[in-house]
Amino acid sequence: MNKKISQLDALGTAPAGTDILPITDVSGTPTTKSVTVANLHSGLQAEPTEGAFVDGDKTKLDGIEASADVTDATNVTAAGALMDSEVTNLAQVKAFDSADYATAAQGTLAGTATQPGDLGTAATSASTDFSPAFFSTVAETTTARTLSDSDNGKVIVCSNASDVTITLPNGLTSGFSCTLVQQGAGVVKVIISGSAVLYGYNSNNATAGQYASVNIYPVGTDTYVLDGTAQAISPPGANALHYPNGIFFDSGATYYISTQPIMHFDADYIDGADSANNPANAAALSSWGDRSGGSTNYDLTQSTGTKQPAFYDVGGLTGVDFDGIADNFSLSTSLSLPANLTQVIIATNTDSVENSLSGLTPATESCAGALFTTGGACGGSSIRLGGTNQTSSVPTFSTSAPNIHVVTKASTAYKYWHQGGSSLYSITASFSMTATKMFSHYLDKGCDARIHETLIFDSTLSVSDLNVIKDYANTKYSSLSASTFS
Amino acid sequence: MKYSVHSTEEEALAENERLKELLGIPDGSGTTEYSVPKEVEGQWYLLLKDKGTWKADHLAVNVQDI
User: Fold this and answer.
1) A with B: how many residue pairs have Cβ under 8 Å apart?
2) Which residues of chain A does B47 touch, with a Cβ-Cβ cutoff of 8 Å?
3) Contact A305 B29 (CB under 8 A)
4) Are strands A197-200 and A137-140 parallel, antiparallel or unpaired?
5) Which of A117, A275, A360, A454 has a 20 to 30 A CA-CA distance from A335?
């Protein structure tokens, strides 16, 4: 519908599409034409439904680089993404199959799974590729080695010209095994320590000769079999007294008792540890070490020169000579007499006139206060046992050979044996004593004797154990000749 | 038994110190004294060793064999 301009709505209001706008020709003959709003809009892009551009939109467009190639290597890398060109195993990545890999659901992830380093290097034909964990040799050039877990699976090549002692301890890793090779002239002998057990066919425990080898196989916890080109050699301590925690502790040894003494003084081991440290014959002794391996320090000491006994070492027989005048030792730790006790003394009487011996003795120098004493002011013709004088059946202590003297205490029951057999005295006595000395006598005089060995137990040993000690003593001291305890 | 006999404890102790020096006591191995004087009826007796490492009856003064 045509309208005069006066009929149109005021400007400022959006015209409708069908509204007509008059056009007047102002040149030539005036004519009048009209155009609608729709005519004016035709050919123009309609405003997007999301709205017209606003200020700032151009600035954003200006920030886009020419061609806007956001996938080129520079842009991708800068964004932290990975380009194909950067991947060296692209085919494997693109061919990834989850079925080929362990998953958390399978209980093992790559970070916690067994790693190649845990297994050793995979072997190839080159010998150097064999992992040390599986195969390698260990050169042992000395005469002693204690096996450890690092020897597991190894070949230990022993090259010393002297005999080599290999100690097999308890506590090695489960399944421990190794091979021992005798490359030198020295025979390779295997001994055990702690609770380890070693078996061998025909008691074999050593290599048979140069270039022989033996294998140690595990057959149980701390239990092994030795096999190979082997022979049987008596191990160190074959004739020693063995007990738990002692210098010798093989439960399979000939002379083994299951009870550990609380004190063990052996003239073969003046320092209580190693016979190699023994002094020269006749040397004055300021100490005598306890070799029992017990937890309490019962080492014997004497700091006064005129009271120090002398070491005796003649013809393979060792002892400690007390002069019967002043020699005695003090205990590093005093001992209150326990309810049950066993005292074993192996000694040669060096007093040409009378028996003279004592063992644990108190600080107060009283004959009546001694557990066991004889000689000197305490009575050369009697034996005091548990503070009680015994005058009958007094034996004569040998002055030329070691004798074994045993005192047992079971509560108030005391027994004394001389050279085995049945006890000479069996008495009941109420007796108490705190021992601070050993081998002392009345008036601080020492006993007049050569003490070879002394053992103290804080229990009453069985007759069976006493016979083990007797057998050991008869072997070690060939002239002792004690009879069977009964 | 041989003794070095003295009229006072001081003399006996001095003799003991002299013997210690002559014998090299303390010896570093646990020996710290040579002897210990004992008094009997007003006399002080220092026991001497007459053999072994600590033989001193040839070194001491006023030696008596009692």
Assistant:
1) 49
2) 306, 325-326
3) no
4) unpaired
5) A275
Closest-CA residue of chain A to B19: A305
Across the range A396-407, mean pLDDT stands at 96
Least reliable range by pLDDT among A32-41, A258-267, A299-308, B41-50 = A32-41
Q: Report which secondary-structure segment, H or E, holds A472.
A: helix A463-476
DSSP string computed for A371-428: SEEESGGG-TT-EEETTEEE-SSPPPPPSSS-EEEEEEEETTEEEEEESSBS-SEEEE
* Per-residue b or e along A273-296, where b marks 16 or more CB atoms closer than 10 Å to that residue's CB: eeeeebeeeebbbbbbbbbbbbee
Greater pLDDT, A325 or A341:
A341
* Residue written as token pair 């009229």: B7
- Across chain B, what does the average pLDDT equal? 95
Amino acid, res. A299: D
Q: Is the peptide bond before B26 cis (omega within 30 degrees of 0)?
A: yes
**Overall average pLDDT of the A277-301 stretch:** 95
Helix, strand, or coil (residue B63)? strand
Q: Which helix (H) or strand (E) holds A94?
A: helix A90-94
Distance (Å) of CA A194 to CA A233, A244, A289, A302: 20, 8, 21, 33
Residue of B1, B29, B33 lying closest to A304 (CB–CB): B33
Q: Closest chain A residue to B31 measured between Cα atoms?
A: A303
Structural tokens at position A33: 């034409």
Give the integer Cα–Cα distance in Å for A372 and A440: 11
Q: CA A54 → CA A43, A44, A393, distances in Å? A: 22, 18, 132
At A415-450, the pLDDT tens digits run 999 999 999 999 999 999 999 999 987 666 778 999
CA dist A400 → A349, A417, B52 (Å)? 8, 19, 21
Residue A129: pLDDT over 60: no
Tell me the C-alpha to C-alpha distance, in Å, between residue B65 and each of A200, A322, B50.
Answer: 64, 19, 10
The verdict on ipTM greater than 0.85 is yes
Q: What pLDDT is recorded for position A75? A: 75
Find the radius of gyration of the CA atoms of chain A. 50
Model confidence over A232-257: pLDDT tens digits? Answer: 886 667 889 999 988 888 888 899 99
